[in-house]
Amino acid sequence: MNNITIANKSGASYRTQLVIIGSFFFMFGFVTWVNGTLIPYLRIACELKDWQPYLVTFAFYISYTIMALPSSKILQFTGMINGIRTGLLIMVLGCLIFIPAALTRSYLLFLIGLFIVGTGLTLLQTAINPYITLIGPSSSAAQRISIMGICNKFAGIIAPFILSAIILSNADALMEELSILSPAAKQVRLDALAHDVIVPYAILAGILLLVSFGIKYAKLPEVDTQTADHSDDRQLIMNNAGVSRNGQMFRGFLAIFCAVGVEVVAGDTISNYGIYNGISLDIAKSLTSLTLAGMLAGYIIGIITIPKYISQNKAYLYSAILGLIFAALILFSSGWTSIIGVALLGFANAMLWPAIWPKALEGLTGKTLNNASAILIMGIAGGAILPLIYGWVSTGTNNKWGYMVVIPCYIYSIYYSKRGRP
Q: How far is the C-alpha of 331 from the C-alpha of 333, rounded, in Å?
């Protein structure tokens, strides 16, 4: 294990720490995966063109790239606990911006709100991902992250059902109604539809606010990152160790970029892909849950098999190979078979993220660890950029062939399993 220590001055047990951190990953999942429902919802409410709904994922995930390094600096001053509370309060602000966005039916304000929510999540994830990696043996880090993934994806499974039941109930009837209304009456109906998002996001803001005030009673120990590695950044880059570490970080960044990119493409495009294949909106609006159920199954298998039966690096390699196989299933089949192929990408993606962190952080300590964590978080930009590329490719070809964008990502993942640190 690295020289980073978990300063357990509060006496909180290992299991208690896992449960508390798991609750945060549940919140991450809920807030993140409602975007799969927001995409068809905002497409209707804000009358968007085919590619524009994917700006939802861009605004949300690009915040990780922009705010990751500032988040690392903030955590150096606040520590993990106060950093978590700050991140939660930022998320509260982002959720509250949905209220004026809904009242004015402004797509720009919706995107700003999503960016701010993503900013708060960036701060939280920059703190908690290395924490869960370092809290136990390195060889079982992927197993612990898989447990967190179950919390995250379980929330992601139920989130689309809850939100779609509120903002897109009787969706097919709504589309039929909008098609026969006069222009003026249609605008009134769309205004009313936009207002439906106010109550769920106000409730979510209230929950996050309560958690931000209650976190100080959770008795989570701080992560002591001041025990080693106080070298100057420029000197670190100039010497051989620095060059090696920077290469390690860069490869890890690209691995995260690919892993999150394919995860978001599979989760947030499947609803529109269902509609493209003739599935009714009432069913398609919740298809994101299928992809997340696949990921949940992958996490459970990971927990059972790693490291007892298979190393986390082998699991990573086999997952990337499965991703290529399922991508071929999408491209060379049709209808529900092709849709199930998208959902199965969730299963293939499950073990990518958990296996990258211990590989990318291996041997890093102190300030270098903080910077590496921030750089890895920046890789979440894959969730911003890859869905947009999917949207552009789909516009030029069709929704099925848009999934070609995941193939280079899985190929790089295979490379990283061989080239990255063991």
A: 6
4 to 134, 222, 362, 365: CA distances (angstroms): 7, 11, 12, 6
The count of structural domains within the chain is 1
Whether 399 maps to a domain, the answer reads: yes
Phi-psi region of 49 (alpha: psi -120 to 50; beta: other; left: phi over 0): beta
The rounded distance, in Å, linking the Cα atoms of 55 and 73 is 28
Q: Round to whole Å and give the CA distance between 134 and 162.
A: 34
Contacts of residue 316, Cβ cutoff 8 Å, sequence gap at least 6: 142, 351, 352, 355, 356, 359, 413, 416, 417
CATH number, domain containing residue 18: 1.20.1250.20
Nearest to 261 by CA among 399, 68, 57: 57
Residue 223, domain member (yes or no) = no
SS3 281: helix
Domain for residue 1, yes or no?
no
Domain that holds residue 26: 9-217+228-419
SS3 of residue 269 by DSSP: coil
Q: Indicate whether 41 belongs to any domain.
A: yes
Residue pLDDT tens, the chain, 422 long = 344 444 444 444 667 777 877 887 888 788 877 877 788 888 888 888 777 888 888 888 888 888 877 887 887 788 777 888 888 899 999 999 999 999 999 999 999 999 999 999 888 877 777 677 666 666 666 677 778 878 877 887 788 778 888 887 777 788 888 888 888 998 999 999 889 899 989 998 998 888 888 777 766 666 554 543 434 444 433 344 444 566 777 888 899 999 999 999 998 889 889 988 988 888 887 888 889 889 888 888 888 887 778 888 888 899 999 999 999 999 999 999 999 999 999 999 988 887 887 777 776 665 666 677 778 878 888 988 998 899 889 988 899 999 999 999 999 999 998 875 44
Is 268:39 a contact under the CB 8 Å cutoff? yes
